[in-house]
């Protein structure tokens, strides 16, 4: 991949915009694919000078390769950020992305676990009483009880927990902090877990650790979530993000204000939160159909 300028952009994304390593890697991969396409198709080695026709043809090639529209739009968003950066740095004076339109995508309704299924999991399923069992249950309780992201859970530090106020301080996307309330029982569970963890000799500044006392990692959390959700739901998708969706949907179904849910989840705009209103509307429709004499 050319280029000093691309590397300059990636450094800006990582260090000045403070994007996560995961996001930076995605940007790097997108820029590499675009650069290779320009080189192979046009024998052109300066992505910063590409015009809108080159960009459009890349988008078409991605579509012809059967890449789904959401993935294509994510790559288009990378290029938007790239050329916006070039304009900001006065490396170019016209933005080729002005003539590039995002692809239409079908709206995905968030998948969520039913309240009764979560109650069964957390109140009736027996978790082992050893360190691993206590930790695994805490992971499920935290993801569902606070709506935090997988990455936020992994980075959660013991010092971020306020046992008096029953809150946790979460470091979200772009290093944005937010305070999330948790229920008193969850505070007590965290205390119990820390005591057991420390007795095992697994002292760590991070809350969630592996069976070896090291920092928890994504695959470990995903396996735990899938294992226990499999006991109560037949959903195809059983991930930490499904628990986050469940948290938001259940709050909304029980009367929580949409703006409050936005703040709890760390969304930057209300539009990201409004996707959950569809699930609530489906519930209202069912109630209407069951209860109204003319339905």
From TrEMBL:
Quaternary context: Forms a cyclic heterotetrameric complex composed of two molecules of XerC and two molecules of XerD.
Keywords, sorted A to Z: Cell cycle, Cell division, Chromosome partition, Cytoplasm, DNA integration, DNA recombination, DNA-binding
Protein location: Cytoplasm
Name of protein: Tyrosine recombinase XerC
Domain Core-binding (CB): 1-87
Coiled coil regions, renumbered to chain: none
Keyword Cell division assigned: yes
Cited InterPro entries: CB, DNA_brk_join_enz, Integrase-like_cat_sf, Integrase_catalytic, Integrase_recombinase_N, Integrase_SAM-like_N, Tyrosine_recombinase_XerC/XerD, Tyrosine_recombinase_XerCD
Catalytic residue list: 149, 173, 241, 244, 267, 276 (o-(3'-phospho-dna)-tyrosine intermediate)
Major subcellular site: cytoplasm
Pfam family, one: Phage_int_SAM_1
Domain Tyr recombinase: 107-289
Function statement: Site-specific tyrosine recombinase, which acts by catalyzing the cutting and rejoining of the recombining DNA molecules. The XerC-XerD complex is essential to convert dimers of the bacterial chromosome into monomers to permit their segregation at cell division. It also contributes to the segregational stability of plasmids.
Name of the encoding gene: xerC
Family: Belongs to the 'phage' integrase family. XerC subfamily.
Family annotation (HAMAP family): Recomb_XerC_XerD
Domain of life: Bacteria
Organism from which the protein derives: Flectobacillus rivi
């Amino acid at each position: 991949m050319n280029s000093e300028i691309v590397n300059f952009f990636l450094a800006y994304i990582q260090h000045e915009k403070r994007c996560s390593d995961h996001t930076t890697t995605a940007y790097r991969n997108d820029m590499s694919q675009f650069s290779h396409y320009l080189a192979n198709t046009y024998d052109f080695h300066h992505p910063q000078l590409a015009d809108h026709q080159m960009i459009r043809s890349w988008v078409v090639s991605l579509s012809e390769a059967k890449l789904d529209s959401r993935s294509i739009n994510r790559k288009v968003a990378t290029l938007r950020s790239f050329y916006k950066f070039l304009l900001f740095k006065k490396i170019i004076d016209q933005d080729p992305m002005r003539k590039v339109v995002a692809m239409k995508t079908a709206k995905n309704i968030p998948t969520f676990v039913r309240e009764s299924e979560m109650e069964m999991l957390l109140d009736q399923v027996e978790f082992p009483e050893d360190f691993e069992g206590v930790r695994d249950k805490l992971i499920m309780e935290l993801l569902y009880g606070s709506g935090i992201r997988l990455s936020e859970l992994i980075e959660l530090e013991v010092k971020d927990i306020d046992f008096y106020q029953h809150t946790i301080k979460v470091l979200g996307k772009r290093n944005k902090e937010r305070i999330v309330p948790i229920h008193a029982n969850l505070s007590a569970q965290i205390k119990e877990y820390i005591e057991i963890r420390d007795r095992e000799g697994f002292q760590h500044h991070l809350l969630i650790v592996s069976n070896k006392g090291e920092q928890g990692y994504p695959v470990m959390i995903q396996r735990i979530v899938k294992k226990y959700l499999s006991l109560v739901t037949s959903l195809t998708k059983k991930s930490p993000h499904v628990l986050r969706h469940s948290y938001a949907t259940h709050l909304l179904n029980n009367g929580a204000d949409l703006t409050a849910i936005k703040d709890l989840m760390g969304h930057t705009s209300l539009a990201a939160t409004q996707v959950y209103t569809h699930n609530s509307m489906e519930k209202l429709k069912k109630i209407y159909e069951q209860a109204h004499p003319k339905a």
